[in-house]
Amino acid sequence: MAKKLHPISVWALAAGGMVGGGIYTVLGVVIAVSAQWAWLAFLIIGILAVTAAYSYVFLSNKFDDSGGVFAFLKEVNDKAMAGNLAWLLILGYVFTISVYAYAFGHYVSFAFHGSAFVIRILAVGIIAALILLNLAGVGKMTKVEIGIVCANLAVLLALGIYGLTKWDAVQLVAGIEPRPVWSALVGGGAIFMGYEGFQLLSYEYDRIKNPAKNFMPVMISAVVFVVVLYIIVALGATFIGGAVSLVDFKAIALSITAQKAFGQTGVIIMTVAAGFATAAAINSTLFSTANLTKNIAKANELPKWFKHTNGKDIPDRAIIVLGSLAGIMAIAGSLTALVEAASLIFVITFGTVNWLCFRESEKLKWIPAIGIVIAVITACTLLFRVAISKPVAFGGLLFIVLLVVLGRPLLLQHNKKMKTGTDDN
């Protein structure tokens, strides 16, 4: 952990942070919404990801801080917004971990013809295993993660390119209704969480070798590569599997594709790739989120209970609580609902980072400006979609936002009184 991250490592971790669980979980969801325009959905929302990557790096370099958006907002003296967004961001990461566990359970179970019960056991089991690894101090294994990323990218790229050789535009709408072009925006918003992950590197800014020189080109190139990869896989997988199959089996869309392309051998390869990729994504997100939670607690924006670390300097309480919540959501929630909830939180977060960059930069302001516009349109579109199609989920989101906005000040006031009482004693 003390070693500096070289550019190749940063690139692999940024790309792996996105692809690790992203494309495995969102492909079937975006095809269900956007049909033949799924590739355009990945492109439009990918532009937002690129602008956010630029903004994250710009602000990290400007403030020389490894705290991500929470630290950025504190640097500009907007502590109230920093606290509110930090709480929502932690929730977004919990949703994300649950989606990755959901995908892990489905992909591994499919290979062994497991039941719904087996899927739940696998989802909870992988989270429990990674909680224990992190508590033991061996959760963050950078070299292992990089190896998994490289193999994962190779498998996905090979599958996508193979699919492109089977070009058949009819397959893009095979068995489903064609969608209008504007559905790409709706679909992109619904699966934006497929692009989250690169920003975890901003939490490890102090570990990056010569970040002022290396961070920007490495991060931008990694995100652009993933955007292109997603488009290739979206087209290639649909040409192979057909739209209706990927929609009907959205939780294991890429295993269905691999099976149709290469039979049982394809299923085995995809299961191994998906299993390791989603497990690595869970591990990385859990580790980074726990440390973020600890730092937020140190800033008195969360109960000081979360500052606790074990003998290996691991934020044990944060890891246990976050992992347990994610496990519950993985077995209780639906894939689409979890993906959309996480996507909305990250759209808001990335839009905020673009806004900060626009405000703090003196040149190339058009880059974050584009991101702000896309983020606003995407957030409004996604909110409208959730309100119409999932009113109960929409009500739940509103309740959570109100709880954060109204409950956080009360908690801070309580913490202040507790601290004052301790000082008096």
TrEMBL record:
Keywords: Cell membrane, Membrane, Transmembrane, Transmembrane helix
Cellular-component GO terms for this entry: plasma membrane
Regions crossing the membrane: 12-33, 39-59, 80-104, 110-132, 144-164, 184-203, 215-247, 267-293, 314-335, 341-359, 366-386, 392-411
Topology of this chain in the membrane: Multi-pass membrane protein
Example of a GO MF term: transmembrane transporter activity
Alphabetical list of InterPro entries matching this protein: AA/rel_permease1, APC_superfamily
Subcellular location: Cell membrane
Name the record gives this protein: Amino acid:proton symporter, ABT family
